Amino acid sequence: MGRQSDNSRCEAGSAIGSRSRPIYFIERLAASEAFKTLFREGMALVEESAAYLDGPGREDSRRLRRPVALAYATESMRLTTRLMQVASWLLLQRAVNEGEMTPAQAASEKHRVRLLRQDIACAPELLEELPQVLRNLSFKSLRLQARVMHLDQSMAAARTPEPPLAPSLIAFQVERLRVAFAV
Fold first, then answer.
1. Nearest Cα to 133, choosing from 38, 52, 45?
2. What are the tens digits of pLDDT across the range 86-113?
3. pTM of the entire predicted model
4. What CATH number does the domain containing 108 carry?
5. pLDDT tens by residue, 135-150
6. What DSSP character marks residue 143?
7. SS3 content of the chain, % helix, strand, coil (to 5)
8. Residue-number span of the structural domain to which 55 is assigned
9. How many domains is the chain built from?
10. Count of CA atoms in the C-beta half-sphere (13 A) of 32
């Protein structure tokens, strides 16, 4: 009788110790209120940047000396590109969260979204001469991009299957003993 309960404990223990898919909290985070907040912040930054670049930014750029105006044009293009990449990623993830796309469909579309880490491209002395609004938008976009890249990398790591464990030498020896004494 005691032996039977020992076996059942071993069987239950082996089920616990078996390799099953772990629970990744990142998947829940991507569909959480925190993601919705990130989404709203991202879209608001896209709108704020577009409003500035199409409005007051045009006037600001006209007043700059030539090398600074070139730095302004470069940074505004980099800002726009960065925000479009982030917005595309956010929209894909939202489509998955709302059931409009499967994760597999989103993964196949992600090859078009390149989340590349970019820094401010211009020299520090030119950066200081750029309009403060453009600098603020650029720094905000870099922080947003870093958050999205972290989330994307965490989600990719959660989807990557773990390599199978190599059999341990102890398990191998125990199996040999079991086979030897089973005869």
1. 52
2. 999 999 888 888 888 887 787 777 666 6
3. 0.69
4. 1.10.8.930
5. 999 999 999 999 998 8
6. H
7. 75, 0, 25
8. 23-160
9. 1
10. 8
